[in-house]
Amino acid sequence: MPTDQTHNPALQSWLPSANAHPSFPIQNLPFGIFSPPNATPRPGIAIGDHILDLTLLQASNLLPAAINSLIPLAPTLNDFLAQGPTPRTLLRQAVSHLLAASSPPHPELLHPATACTLHLPAHIPNYTDFYAGIHHALAVGRLFRPDAPLLPNYKWIPIGYHGRASSIRPSGTPVTRPAGQRKLPHEQQPTFGPTRALDFELELGIWIGPPNPLGRPILIAEAHNHIAGFCLLNDWSARDLQSWEYQPLGPFLAKSFHTTISPWIITPEALAPFRQPQPSRDPTDPQPLPYLADPEDQATGALNLILEVFLLTHSMRTQNIAPYPITQSNAHHLYWTPQQLLTHHTSNGCNLLPGDLLGTGTISAPNATGPGSLLELTQAATQPLTLPTGEQRFYLEDGDEILLRATAHRPGFTPIGFGDCRALIHPAQN
Amino acid sequence: MPTDQTHNPALQSWLPSANAHPSFPIQNLPFGIFSPPNATPRPGIAIGDHILDLTLLQASNLLPAAINSLIPLAPTLNDFLAQGPTPRTLLRQAVSHLLAASSPPHPELLHPATACTLHLPAHIPNYTDFYAGIHHALAVGRLFRPDAPLLPNYKWIPIGYHGRASSIRPSGTPVTRPAGQRKLPHEQQPTFGPTRALDFELELGIWIGPPNPLGRPILIAEAHNHIAGFCLLNDWSARDLQSWEYQPLGPFLAKSFHTTISPWIITPEALAPFRQPQPSRDPTDPQPLPYLADPEDQATGALNLILEVFLLTHSMRTQNIAPYPITQSNAHHLYWTPQQLLTHHTSNGCNLLPGDLLGTGTISAPNATGPGSLLELTQAATQPLTLPTGEQRFYLEDGDEILLRATAHRPGFTPIGFGDCRALIHPAQN
Predict the structure, then answer these.
(1) CA B74 → CA A107, A429, B45, B52, B123, distances in Å?
(2) pLDDT at A430
(3) In whole angstroms, what is the distance from residue A35 CA to residue B93 CA?
(4) Which of A95, A408, B288, B360 is deepest in the core (most CB within 10 A)?
């Protein structure tokens, strides 16, 4: 398991808020795009409750010239992601040294995060969503096909579909309740109107770095070099639209109205200490076909990330009640590793581009405390969720806010988080 | 039906090859991006067997200043498409006048098309593929569900799914046979290897012009203002990959390896004379829900475009045998109009971007002469197609080339075509 000085839990920063920060201690150093007050979007690194302005850092010439030239300055990180692990790793090490308590403080390079606006960290050329959370697939399958919850292909092939790239928004952008065609089983014909079954889905996002040319698959042993980082992803879903539209070509308008992501790119380097073996499979499960099989990936391809979901209703907000935890899961429950998803995606020659985003699919835990969606939590709207206010929910209501949280834990290492992935639901416009 | 002087069949050009040209008479004037020999990509207009160089035209100041300032100069047409019908229409009228036989010739503004390279006319931010060809849906449904070929939602909702934008290529780019997981019904488990069921799909592409903000649907009466033009589209499909992967989330790697389009944007203005009423529905068919219903769209929303498919094998090529016609269909067979597809797409608030591409879905004719795919033509590989050489095909072989052709016809008007949409199949790389 590759670790280096940047992971040392004894490492402290001269910035007090970084030390013991739940998301952004000096051991994390995620990349993003932000605007300081009255200024244009630019790259930054989150540290404690501040953001390191990479444009100011570059101008300061504090780093050695060879490293300084690697600093991204463009208002999207696509070109930086395209360059792969080497410049990212070198810059990370230099910034870790710069921000360490043993170095002279440079507060003039920082902005308070609360004064800044966060943007998508990259232009997203293509977005693909997978279905690799097997406990979600099982739970949803049990609701609709109790006798055969998993389809025959599930354990052979990473199931995925193309998602809508244009409607991905960073944490904090409100979600407008979508309208669409809905038909309940007992209804004679569909009607058009606002969804009555708005749901969240707890997912991890995977940022693509270096591209592959059309027609050239990425081998499983090389896949990690094409992954530039991770984020949280809420795949908002309108279940009534989905059940009416999805046959035979899959989800479309039930998903394309909005997708929320956490805006910081958590690097593979920051997550290196939290890698672990893929969960062991049932003895009756098939072995992965050779193009998806790699001993190194099997040994280290999974991520130990605690994933949580919180719900905050309008009433809770006005009563100052804290967001209510409704789900606790873990990214290691994925049936396929991020590397397997990427390799499968390119196995037909499909070309990935820098800044492409892959969603893992909903990551539910195998027990009742970890449903990755309300569909599972309320058993398809048959068992309500009851909140501390006494309010009940089958699906989400206007004024509700969903917050996702990811935290990497491992004894002997400093925990790191992903930052905010939250969005408030606004009423339908029509 | 809006027609103007640009449609006058008596209009001739001072460029002899434009007169009676099967695709690009002076009545067409499609926009595209091309490179002259040893030069960078730039906008152009196809005329006869030449291309009008818009960069040279702008520098010549031959057009009135107000029109000259509308000429696109960027190496993609996205910004031009975003501006909607007005600048496009004004420039079209001015170029029609410039190229007319009654005006002085300016051959210095033209390049021979055969010396130029054609590119995608715009960066394609998102690609969506629909399923609006009802005779295709019926024919495919009959193969797999003889008792109920159409699913219950088909006549209510335009079925669609997100496609892969990054692998769309202009006519002439070879298609590499993709590999993937394939499992025949009698096989115990899947294997990985080159597809054994490579197919074409005959579709029309729809270019999006002005965008809509996220959360703001485009009303059906406004939809035509957001359509910037049309192209031919071959939605290459690996049927064995598709049948194994597509449940429950739809087609993915079976389609994402390559999509071929004709590179000229045929404008709504050029196609105006060829509009006609939507085909009448069965009395038992549902009326479109109000958000998809518009009297004007019903009266003029369909396009009378003859669509043809030709197959040219390696053996035919070496024997100098002409491409063999295997399909004749028509765009008026679509169950939903392009405007209905666009309005449905945005009905949940999904934002379309300039340069987005919508595929209509495979446009088969209702009879045996018009199958829009080999799946239909060979009845799922049970009845071979026999070619003039005696060769037989169930699906496509390496060295085969598929050519699509579209021609707009109407008595009293000059026919216009879409230009080449062809691609040769190269062997798998792995």
Answers:
(1) 43, 36, 14, 15, 11
(2) 59
(3) 44
(4) B360
A243 touches chain B (CB under 8 A): no
Token pair 């009879």: residue: B367
CB A39 within 8 A of CB A67: no
**HEC letters along A317-330:** HHCCCCCEEEEEEE
Q: Tell me whether B249 touches chain A (CB under 8 Å).
A: yes
Please give the interface size between A and B, counted as residue pairs whose CB atoms are below 8 Å apart.
Answer: 196
* Contact residues on chain A for B258, CB-CB shorter than 8 A: 214, 349
Interface of B with A in 365-404 (CB under 8 A): none
Complex-level ipTM beyond the 0.95 threshold: yes
| Residue B43 identity (one-letter amino acid) | P
Phi, psi at residue A248, to the nearest 5°? -100, 5
pTM of the model: 0.97
For B254, nearest residue in chain A (alpha carbons):
A348
Q: Please give the Cα distance from A68 to A65 (Å, whole number).
A: 5
* Nearest CB to A286 within list B189, B251, B429: B189
Cis ω before B279 (30° cut-off from 0): no
What is the CB neighbour count within 10 angstroms for residue B319? Answer: 10
How far, in Å, are A23, A136, A301 from residue A334 at the CA level? 23, 10, 10
Q: How far is A226 from chain B (nearest CA, A)?
A: 16
Q: What is the C-alpha separation between A31 and A267, in angstroms, rounded?
A: 8
Is the alpha carbon torsion for B179, A340, A207, A200 positive or negative?
positive
C-beta neighbour count of B168 within 10 angstroms: 20
Catalytic residues of B: 136
Rounded Cα distance, B190 and A157, in Å: 9
CA distance B315 to B400: 9
For chain A, say whether B125 makes contact (Cβ under 8 Å). yes
Residues sharing a CB contact under 8 Å with residue B403, sequence separation 6 or more, in sequence order: B309, B310, B311, B312, B323, B420, B421, B422
DSSP B256: T
Instruction: Give bridge partners of residue A192 from the DSSP assignment.
Output: A181
B250 in reach of chain A (CB within 8 A): yes
Say whether residue A283 is in contact with chain B using an 8 A CB cutoff: no
- Sort out which chain B residues have CB atoms less than 8 A from A215's CB and list them: 176, 257, 429
pLDDT (tens, 9 = 90+) of chain A, 430 residues, equals 455 899 999 999 999 999 999 999 999 999 999 999 999 999 999 999 999 999 999 999 999 999 999 999 999 999 999 999 999 999 999 999 999 999 999 999 999 999 999 999 999 999 999 999 999 999 999 998 888 899 999 999 999 999 999 999 999 999 999 999 999 888 999 999 999 999 999 999 999 999 999 999 999 999 999 999 999 999 999 999 999 999 999 999 999 999 999 999 999 999 999 999 998 888 999 999 999 999 999 999 999 999 999 999 999 999 999 999 999 999 999 999 999 999 999 999 999 999 999 999 999 999 889 999 999 999 999 999 999 999 999 999 999 999 999 999 999 999 999 999 999 999 998 5
Chain A closest-CA separation from residue B217 CA (Å) = 9
Q: Does A180 contact B348 at a Cβ distance shorter than 8 Å? A: yes
Rounded to a whole number, what is the largest CA-CA distance in chain B?
A: 72
